[in-house]
Amino acid sequence: LAQVNIIGSVIFSGMSGTALVDAAGMGTIEIKAMKDHGYPVEAAVGVTAASATLGPIFPPSLPFVIYGMMANVSIGALFMAGIIPGVVMTLLMMITVAVFA
């Protein structure tokens, strides 16, 4: 279920682009489901908070748009630059959850 939490955050970050919206929108559902399936509250909150940080990394990211406009940098290039770090972070989070589960 923690793996689903991470993938859900990746999908939701593609719609919202921010960590706060990801944590607030998906967090209530994910934490309740994880508690119902026997996860400790600390683990459920930790995985949800950590996976919410993917929001500003994965395109379309609101911080990328704001930075691109302020610094006159190509927003498309910023989006392309965010894909690989986002995938790497997602995979490392999933491996970490698998090791500690």
How would you summarize the topology of this molecule?
Layout: H1 2-16, H2 19-36, H3 41-52, H4 62-71, H5 75-100
Describe this structure in words.
- The chain starts with a helix and ends with a helix.
- The longest helix has 26 residues, at 75-100.
- Helix 1 runs parallel beside helix 3.
- The chain has 101 residues and is mainly α.
- The protein has one domain.
- It contains five helices and no strands.
- The protein is elongated, with a radius of gyration of 14 Å.
Q: Which labels suit this protein?
A:
single chain; 101 residues; mainly alpha; 5 helices; 80% helix
Shape: elongated
Binned, the helix content reads: over 70%
Question: What is the arithmetic mean of pLDDT?
Answer: 90
Number of strands: 0
In sequence order, what are the helices and strands, one letter per element? Answer: HHHHH
Structural class: mainly alpha
Computed CA radius of gyration, to the nearest angstrom: 14 Å
How many individual helices?
5
Low-confidence stretches: none
Biggest beta sheet attributes:
none
Number of domains: 1
Proportion of residues in extended strands: under 5%
Give the terminus-to-terminus CA distance.
Answer: 10 Å
